[in-house]
């Protein structure tokens, strides 16, 4: 029986431009990912993706058929694609951990279910672990694919709709002031505000280079002027730099006039409430829709008419993967002191073993201990990833049947230890 290597050759390379355009390998790789995600091959989008990928330091991996069928897409078009790069993740208390991000995973329909994803994921995660990454992360197209590779859902997002046909009023008046901003102003404000959000929000993933398009009033994908987008900034006091911003646009949905919140980044209470006060004050709006709302949303509690806010969807957002358990567990701060021994099962091996976590004055120190050391909790690598960030409690994961408690009270202890002092949330799509 033919092996993977008989049929395919795997090439890993850095994307590059020649005379401002993606070189042949880069262009073919990007065009192939667009087939996988049902996106068009607009040359502007392909160029912008290449520029963004270079800015991020992405490494592309392509799987190429050794014997392509005559007349099929060119030999330089991969039948499988995969990208990896490094960005930081806030793991709590302002601790940022450089993590290995996985993106653009596609396998051509004519080559699927032959183990190509498994081959790529196994090989690339091993390389990421060998290069010293303690964590990997991705956002998933489907929720049933990545658990088998040790990824667990770590942050969630909500889609909300606010009925603006009822009066919009906040219970507390925010400080500071909101004004509409020009795209040029936003290009300076947005990266700084996001950096503040990223430094203070557990679960935040640093943003990729292509976000600069949105900050400049351009379409994220094509870098063409986005004529529908509007921007506003929040300023905490006269003359102070802006500490929050929102990008939004108006769309029609049948008879409804809808304000769509595109990107709202507000690291402070006043910025968050001030920007919402502004959005709620815009006339000729029937609904406000926001698809990146936090699960623990202050707006629900801030609204006088809280029933006007409806959650219309919720899903997993960032999936984490622990590649080095002692390093990852030692990197984040903890809400409660204590000691826990965790037995972790990991089919890919990276986080497999028994680990003792000691927390003193909120600082964690984790070490690998002997396989036979008595463990208080037992879980698989995907569940460890979910537990790690603190967005889901150990007790809840225990109730879901994902953590076995071998010492009475250990689930409660882990719940207190892993709790974050701020809601776990992120505003980066990658
Ligand atoms: C991080 C990201 O980029 S998310 C985006 C992922 N890409 C997409 O959704 C684009 C469209 N889909 C595809 O390109 C492909 O179908 C992929 C990448 C999802 C799967 O690629 P394949 O090469 O067919 O997967 P492969 O044959 O290696 O399967 C590996 C395992 O995952 C499972 N699997 C693969 N696809 C799916 C799926 N859609 N749902 C559930 N399980 C799946 C397989 O059953 C197999 O399980 P096993 O090894 O435990 O028996």
UniProtKB/TrEMBL annotation:
Acetyl-CoA binds at residues 105-107, 113-118, 141-142. It comes from the Bacteria. InterPro entries: Acetyltransf_17 (IPR041380), Acetyltransferase_Eis (IPR051554), Acyl_CoA_acyltransferase (IPR016181), Eis_dom (IPR025559), NAcTrfase_Eis (IPR022902), SCP2_sterol-bd_dom_sf (IPR036527). The active site is at 146 (proton donor), 430 (proton acceptor). Belongs to the acetyltransferase Eis family. Homohexamer; trimer of dimers. PANTHER family: N-ACETYLTRANSFERASE EIS. This is GNAT family N-acetyltransferase. It comes from Frondihabitans peucedani.
């Amino acid at each position: 029986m033919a092996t993977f290597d008989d049929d395919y050759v795997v090439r890993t390379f850095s994307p590059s431009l020649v005379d401002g355009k993606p070189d042949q390998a880069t262009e073919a790789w990007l065009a192939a990912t667009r087939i996988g995600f049902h996106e068009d091959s607009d040359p502007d989008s392909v160029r912008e993706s290449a520029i963004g990928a270079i800015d991020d330091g992405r490494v592309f991996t392509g799987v190429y058929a050794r014997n392509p069928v005559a007349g099929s897409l060119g030999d330089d078009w991969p039948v499988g694609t995969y990208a990896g790069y490094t960005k930081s993740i806030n793991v709590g208390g302002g601790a940022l951990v450089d993590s290995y991000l996985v993106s653009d995973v596609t396998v051509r329909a004519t080559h699927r279910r032959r183990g190509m994803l498994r081959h790529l994921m196994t090989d690339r995660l091993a390389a990421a672990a060998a290069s010293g990454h303690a964590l990997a992360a991705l956002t998933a197209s489907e929720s049933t694919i990545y658990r088998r590779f040790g990824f667990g859902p770590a942050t969630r997002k909500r889609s909300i709709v606010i009925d603006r046909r009822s009066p919009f009023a906040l219970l507390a008046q925010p400080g500071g002031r909101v004004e509409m901003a020009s795209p040029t102003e936003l290009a300076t404000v947005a990266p700084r505000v996001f950096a503040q959000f990223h430094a203070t929000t557990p679960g935040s993933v640093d943003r990729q280079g292509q976000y600069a398009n949105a900050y400049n009033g351009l379409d994220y994908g094509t870098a063409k002027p986005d004529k529908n987008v509007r921007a506003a900034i929040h300023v905490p006091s006269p003359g102070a730099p802006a500490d929050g911003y929102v990008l939004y646009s108006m769309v029609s949905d049948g008879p409804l006039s809808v304000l769509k919140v595109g990107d709202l980044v507000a690291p402070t209470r006043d910025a968050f409430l001030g920007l919402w006060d502004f959005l709620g004050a815009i006339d000729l709006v029937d609904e406000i829709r926001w698809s990146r709302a936090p699960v623990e949303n202050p707006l629900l509690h801030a609204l006088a008419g809280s029933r006007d806010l409806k959650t219309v969807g919720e899903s997993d957002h960032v999936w984490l993967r622990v590649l080095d358990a002692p390093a990852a567990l030692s990197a984040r701060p903890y809400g409660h002191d204590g000691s826990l021994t965790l037995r972790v099962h990991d089919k890919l091996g990276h986080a497999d073993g028994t680990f003792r976590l000691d927390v003193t004055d909120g600082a964690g120190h984790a070490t690998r201990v002997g396989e036979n050391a008595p463990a208080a909790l037992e879980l698989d690598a995907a569940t460890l990833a979910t537990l790690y960030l603190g967005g889901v409690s150990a007790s809840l994961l225990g109730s879901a049947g994902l953590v076995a408690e071998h010492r009475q009270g250990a689930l409660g202890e882990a719940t207190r230890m892993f709790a974050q002092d701020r809601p776990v949330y992120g505003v980066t799509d990658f």
